[in-house]
Write a structure and sequence with these properties.
With 170 residues, the chain is of the alpha+beta class. Helices cover 18% and strands 35% of the residues. The protein has helices at 30-44, 49-60, 75-78; strands at residues 67-74, 90-96, 99-106, 109-115, 120-125, 132-136, 141-144, 151-158, 161-165, 168-169.
Length: 170
């Protein structure tokens, strides 16, 4: 807008300057945005009821016959801290019937052993996608060079049995 001298009051501003403050990501409510996006998707492209029902039924049967391996030791909770120790691996022990699974989780990956020693195929579950496939040797030892990034569980197939550990946050 021009003032009485014919000057445009927009000329006093720097071209790159903005009236509002810089965007602050810490103050932004991500939960609210996610909720709004979910509502929009539900309105514009809803999941058919039949597909939702099939997904629920398929998930319910996913590991129907699997045995649950209960967490019996977690070094974050049960171990006595050592003064001056840094980057200490997290030690986990799971039990299911006659099977024990010892797992060491570090920033460089995980390694473990099945007791009694036996070969097995192991899957690291870390979300809805299929996880890393590992193999336990005849001594029951297994390793993964990729550390779990978030909540994870292990699915073990030993002979005809399927054992799934409890879910834990890495």
């Amino acid at each position: 807008m021009n003032d009485m001298n014919g000057r445009d009051d927009r000329d006093d501003r720097d071209d790159g300057a903005r009236d509002d403050e810089a965007f602050d990501d810490e103050e932004f409510d991500h939960g609210s945005l996610e909720e709004e996006l979910r509502e929009a998707a539900a309105i514009l492209d809803p999941v058919p009821a039949e597909l939702r029902q099939l997904a629920v039924e398929a998930y319910a049967l996913h590991d129907l016959d699997a045995k649950i391996a209960e967490l019996t030791f977690d070094s974050l909770v049960d171990a006595i801290p050592v003064r001056g120790a840094v980057d200490v691996p997290r030690m986990l022990t799971f039990h299911s019937g006659g099977l024990t699974v010892d797992v060491e989780v570090t920033a460089h990956g995980l390694m473990g052993q099945l007791l009694p020693p036996q070969p097995a195929s192991i899957e690291v579950l870390d979300g809805p996608r299929a996880g890393a496939a590992l193999t336990a040797d005849d001594m029951g030892r297994f390793t993964s060079e990729a550390p779990p990034a978030g909540p994870f569980a292990l699915r073990l197939r030993t002979g005809g049995d399927v054992v799934v550990t409890e879910w834990l946050r890495a």
